[in-house]
Design a protein that fits this description.
5 helices, about 450 residues, six-stranded mixed beta sheet, alpha/beta
């Protein structure tokens, strides 16, 4: 049998097979490269969408931190003691619009090319893509309507989330907001739901009236250290804040469990009571020296009524506000006392500032920091903190909801008609103002369903 010595055909076949295998491998490699590129692009878009969602959350938090009614503020004003549980705010890319019942609109603070974490108002049909803020709630009975007892609050004292409150702004709790923010890049969407609330502040106040110097009380001077809500009516005088009514079952006092602060023998000196301690009540007057009660009229109520020869320190104002000294001094302090609005600093060490209130009916709200002595005269209605580095003398008519702190070591004289009602809620509010505090984030989660 004759052998074929020419094997060029076999080599050609082998070459073609090798080329085929290499082509398949190259195609597979190219497919993997394209697939990885697509996956990488999708992951990048998804990551960018998540960052946009967080950017929207940051804008909502910043705006919730502002006072209601300001240019940036979006929160519902609940200082009057009422809350609309159906309240909701949409932050849109274009101009807002007139409120529609409990629904309000606000334009984003962004300028130029806007980040895609919201939509124009005409796209509100897709609320999944619209930055929105609402109260955290649950429709317990499934009727489609939300009531106060279906809104979640954060309880500062117990450090826990609770459902429903009899009052929307009690001293120890504040409603929780839900921020729903969706970032969009191409077809990628990432939605974050963030729960935030107002942070709690302890101003380290010792009493309704704290004084390093001896305190002299005369005339119609009354100080109540039982804790009062910030909704306490202007010019309510102790002991009228003890009056029990159907609407105010504990009087104008923040209560814990049962009525507190009222003795069987009228308003006699009281030892500290457990219910007062639970409610956050303080002494009416606490002094590092003595208290001279001149005259027959009652002068102080609290938990206990008066503390003399206290060894507790009176903190500098920056420590009371939870700040560093430099940061506190660099705050945008104003100097207009008529009226005090926000942060006001006046006087100088060794001098006396006269504070006449600016006329009947003028209401002051904020922090008044007096660097020297203070002599208050008539017609002062003040909600907040009055901090005096020198001595203090009152005269005329003065009403304070919050607290007075006197650092001067020589004299604190409360004469004339002065009423001081301690309010931790009011002090916390002005402390938040000084700190420009944002929200405290309670939880954050990513969701894939529509809200």
């Amino acid at each position: 049998m004759k052998r074929i010595k020419n094997q060029k055909g076999v080599a050609l076949v082998l070459s073609l097979m090798v080329i085929l295998v290499l082509s398949v491998m190259a195609s597979g490699l190219m497919f993997n490269i394209i697939n990885e590129k697509t996956i990488t692009a999708n992951r990048m878009r998804s990551s960018q969408a998540l960052l946009l969602s967080k950017a929207g959350t940051s804008e909502a938090i910043a705006r919730l931190s502002q006072q209601p009614g300001t240019t940036w503020g979006i929160a519902q004003d609940i200082s009057s003691g009422s809350l609309n549980p159906e309240w909701r705010c949409y932050i849109t890319l274009d101009a807002g619009g007139s409120p529609e019942g409990p629904i309000v609109y606000a334009q984003t603070l962004q300028t130029g090319t806007a980040l895609q974490y919201s939509t124009n108002r005409n796209a509100l049909g897709d609320t999944f893509s619209t930055l929105q803020v609402r109260y955290k709630r649950i429709d317990l009975n499934g009727d489609g309507a939300i009531t106060n007892d279906e809104v979640y609050f954060y309880d500062y004292k117990r450090e826990m989330v609770v459902l429903g409150r009899t009052s929307p702004t009690p001293v120890d709790a504040y409603p929780i907001w839900e921020i729903i923010s969706t970032g969009r890049v191409g077809n990628s969407r990432r939605t974050m739901v963030t729960e935030v609330s107002v942070p709690s502040f302890n101003t380290r106040t010792r009493a309704g009236l704290s004084s390093k110097a001896p305190v002299t009380g005369n005339g119609n001077a009354d100080v109540c250290g039982h804790d009062h809500p910030q909704t306490t009516p202007y010019n309510l005088s102790p002991p009228n804040c003890f009056t029990l009514t159907t609407a105010q079952p504990h009087g104008w006092h923040v209560a814990a469990e049962d009525s507190h602060g009222i003795a069987a023998n009228s308003f006699a000196n009281l030892a500290p009571k457990a219910t007062c301690t639970q409610a956050g009540c303080l002494p009416g007057i606490e002094t590092n020296a003595t208290f001279d009660n001149v005259g027959a009229n009652r002068k102080a109520w609290g938990n206990p009524d008066v503390v003399e020869n206290s060894t507790s320190p009176i903190y500098p104002i920056w420590e009371m506000l939870g700040m560093e000294e430099t940061a506190c001094k660099n705050l945008p302090w104003g100097n207009n006392m008529y009226p005090v609005t926000g942060l006001v600093r006046v006087g100088s060490p060794g001098t006396t500032t006269m504070y006449a209130g600016g006329g009947s009916g003028l209401q002051h709200d904020g922090i008044l920091w007096v660097l020297g002595n203070l002599h208050s005269a008539s017609n002062i209605s003040f909600k907040g903190l009055i901090y005096i580095e020198g001595n203090y003398q009152s005269g005329g008519t003065t009403w304070v909801l919050g607290g007075i702190v006197v650092q001067g070591a020589t004299q604190t004289s409360i004469t004339g008609s002065i009423d001081v009602l301690y309010s931790s809620q009011t002090l916390a509010r002005v402390s938040r103002l000084a700190n420009a505090a944002g929200m405290v984030v309670l939880s954050q989660r990513e969701v894939d369903q529509k809200f």
